[in-house]
Amino acid sequence: ACPLIAVKLNGFACKNPAWVQANDFSFSGLHNPGNTGNPFGSAITPVTVAQIPGLNTLGISMVRIDYAPWGIVAPHYHPRATEIITVIEGSLEVGFVTSNPDNRLISKTLQKGDVFVFPVGLLHFQRNVGHMNAVTISALSSQNPGVSTIANVIFGSKPDISTNILAKAFQVDKNIVQQIQRKF
């Protein structure tokens, strides 16, 4: 909690220190599995400043991710945070892509107890490569790391990015771009 009243820092209201309570610094529920019954086969339980107001200005947050067999966390990046992931259960393929001009894929298969780091702002992904559910805990270097899922950003923008631009960028027919955009 910030030392000021009625002021926002990082987009979140500060609380008078005299009004701070233990609930402003706690979260319950990371022991509960998320619902992976979706097209991606994953569920993300965030613990950011939105869930714990006391995180505001502290520069940390975390998430629990549950993965069904072969479930993924689609390619995405965090504009304001580096992420370190720990495998609690299962086996995961993880990776990130370095920036232009190299665009080099750095990937590895992780087992229970393994840790991997995704540098701030780089595209990364995770995939359960096992036949059982997997669980990870990630720590992020921001109380509000943000997330930009690539497919959503490109094909689900409001309003749509011009099909001419996307067709040229992906070197595909405009009809393919329109077909993908309709899914978002």
From TrEMBL:
Residues 28-178 form the Cupin type-1 domain. One of its GO terms (cellular component) is apoplast. Mn(2+) binds at H76, H78, E83, H124. GO terms for molecular function: manganese ion binding. Oxalate binds at H78, E83. It is found in: Secreted, Extracellular space, Apoplast. It comes from the Eukaryota. Keywords: Apoplast, Disulfide bond, Glycoprotein, Manganese, Metal-binding, Secreted. Its main location: secreted. Belongs to the germin family. May play a role in plant defense. Probably has no oxalate oxidase activity even if the active site is conserved. This is Germin-like protein.
